[in-house]
Amino acid sequence: IAEGAIIVNCTAKNIVAGKNAILYNLIDDSDEGIVAGEGDVIVSVTEESGEMMELRSKHSICGGKAWKEIVAGNKLTFEEVMVKNFNSNVTKIEQKRKELF
């Protein structure tokens, strides 16, 4: 169920996305599936090891202003995620993601 949401490259048994939600690169095998409220932004960042980290934000959060802040219950700032993955091998990451499907 999605109302005015953008959902790209997501796999789940069930996806519920509120109005203006953005979901990107998410893989979820739970019965509940992916659940996003109105204005939620949820993306998955995959590391070369295959480990995935979910990043959350909201339409109301300016990523530029909040670049160095931990927001929406994330464990890292947006800047820390960028630095951590800066020299990642994208081809290797894509292979790991395909193994998960």
Summarize the structure.
This protein is α/β, with parallel strands linked by helices and 101 residues long.
Show the helix and strand layout.
Blueprint: E1 6-8, E2 11-12, E3 15-17, E4 22-24, E5 27-28, E6 34-36, E7 40-46, E8 52-58, H1 78-85, H2 90-100
Parallel strand pairs: 1-4, 2-5, 3-6, 4-7
Antiparallel strand pairs: 7-8
Task: Note the main attributes of this structure.
8 strands; 101 residues; alpha/beta; two-stranded parallel sheet; 2 helices; four-stranded mixed beta sheet; 19% helix
| Count of distinct strands | 8
Total individual domains: 1
Which term fits the overall shape? flat
**Overall pLDDT, averaged?**
93
What does this molecule look like?
The chain has helices at 78-85, 90-100; strands spanning 6-8, 11-12, 15-17, 22-24, 27-28, 34-36, 40-46, 52-58. It has 101 residues and is an alpha/beta fold. It has one domain (6-100). The strands form three sheets. The chain has a four-stranded mixed beta sheet. Strand 7 (40-46) and strand 8 (52-58) form a beta hairpin.
